[in-house]
Amino acid sequence: MNDQKFIVMSADALVTEDLKLLETLPNYRRYVAGGARMESMLSVYPTVTYPAHTSMATGCLPGKTGIVSNCERLDPSAKSLPWVLDHKFVKVPDIFTAAKKAGKSTASVFWPVTGNHKDIDYLINEWPGCAENVPIETALASQGTSPEVLEIVKKYMREMPRTGIHPDCDYFIADCAAEIIRRFSPDLIMLHPANVDGVRHGSGAFGEEVDQAVKDTDNLIGIVCRAAEAAGWKDKFNFILVSDHGQMDMKRVINTNTLFADLGWIETDDDGNVKSWRAKTISSAFSSYVILKDPSDEKFKREVACTLSSIVKDGLYGFGEVLDEKQARERYDLYGNFSFVIETDDFTGFGDDVTHPTLARCRDMSDYRQGWASHGYMPEKGPQPVFCAKGPAFKENYLGGRGRIYDLAPTLAAAMGIDFYDCDGRALTELLR
After folding, report:
1. Is the pTM above the cut of 0.85?
2. CA dist., res. 2 & res. 25, Å (int)
């Protein structure tokens, strides 16, 4: 049996342009440079963290995984939309299940949508401030963190801010992952720091603040890889650095639901509360889902399609393109309980407010979707994600072409010498020895 160890770090929103700086930094140079990497990686649609990471772990596109948003469901009637934390919402098997089935031990630190995952031995699910009045250890325990791993959480909890939101908790993530490596020596560990993503949202796609976040990422690489050496893995561990999407600068935000209210599709009371609705949107930052109250009403669906098409042609509200259900499925294998997807004109983001003004503030970090930069657009746009790997399973000094982020799971399975499930991705065998 393959006795190599595998560490996968997904540095959220890291892009190929960042590698120029990383290549000058000590930990990247020691643990990543000189290995195998792809020229770039294509993300999924929408380019959003939770759908992307679920696709990375399963090898399947969002329509198949059932994770099409950071939220549990697309429900415009709900007063709030909780983040999708529990793995029960994922409809297909993943690399953790494949590894466990093959007799491997597994670990995950802040990898999205792994809550209560039965095939992860050492689990700390990502907890993005979802239970503000609940102690951190209690919140994590509810998501499947075992008592022995909670001891690690308590050891490093001083590094976790009360909100549990990136980028402030990323040293907590790296230190917990390092401690899991030292104590339990899992065969596969996957972790998800997001300092680069958080800084890009807060300052723009590129700049000095982002450069500092990239330098911090190098520190995180060093923390986990030095732990691997301390655990006796020196000649048998593979370190794989990946990411989920890039970001583009955002120039303005349009509240699409205010347009729908003006069209008579949403009715509000004098206080701006929704009384009834026929069509509403749920934003993914640079794209937005359109949900119909009665999707079987074909006459109204045609009315919505015609109106959205005219808004695209007008060019006033940032609608670059509108996909219907068939187009979303055919182009991106994206499907769910929505009827249309509004895509950006590449500088307009979308908000969910129902009341005026239609033109909302951007660069407002009270909603991460409306920061200085964001994502959620079609995957072929903007700076692209990365795939870099070094270790005994991977070739030295090899540059491949363009892959897809959902190639990660089948590539890991091939490198580990284990079976994997039918999926949309392929094993990047050109990177393997």
Report:
1. yes
2. 31
